[in-house]
Design goal:
Layout (H helix, E strand, L loop, with lengths): L3 E2 L2 H10 L2 E7 L4 H16 L4 E6 L4 H6 L7 E6 L2 E7 L4 H13 L2 H16 L1
Parallel strand pairs: 1-3, 2-3
Antiparallel strand pairs: 2-4, 4-5
Protein name: Thioredoxin
GO molecular function: protein-disulfide reductase activity
Keywords: Disulfide bond, Redox-active center
Length: 124
């Protein structure tokens, strides 16, 4: 699957309907974003089961705020609607592939358990 342009209106459906979503927060004027764009596109072609979504921070300020994006590009890896990794800055292709491998290998049962435990501790 090639990359998609994600809007706030499509966000909930996108993360609900897809197990793995990788978000690339970018802006038109950002040099590193332009350098990263072909890498993101190339890697997306190798993983058709993953949604690779580009989020223009100037057009989608609500999403950028939701993810507390402070610098761009910023990559966010989500699995089962949970943010499992966020990285500001340009990633080389090998590092992006490594991140995807790690994302696929995550024990999501354990992640859900740890998240529930952390939420319970916060409420205590």
């Amino acid at each position: 699957m090639a990359t998609i342009n994600l809007t706030a209106e499509e966000f909930e459906k996108t993360i609900t309907d897809n197990d793995i979503v990788i978000l690339d927060f970018w802006a038109e004027w950002c040099g590193p974003c332009k350098q990263f764009s072909p890498i993101f596109e190339s890697v997306s072609e190798k993983h058709p089961d993953i949604v690779f979504a580009k989020v223009n921070v100037e057009e989608q300020q609500e999403l950028a705020g939701l993810f507390q994006v402070r610098s761009i590009p910023t990559l966010v890896f989500m699995r089962e609607k949970i943010v499992v990794f966020s990285n500001p800055g340009l990633l080389p292709e090998a590092n992006l592939e490594e991140g995807i491998k790690g994302l696929r290998e995550l024990d999501m049962e354990q992640v859900h358990k740890d998240l529930a435990e952390a939420q319970n501790n916060d409420q205590a």
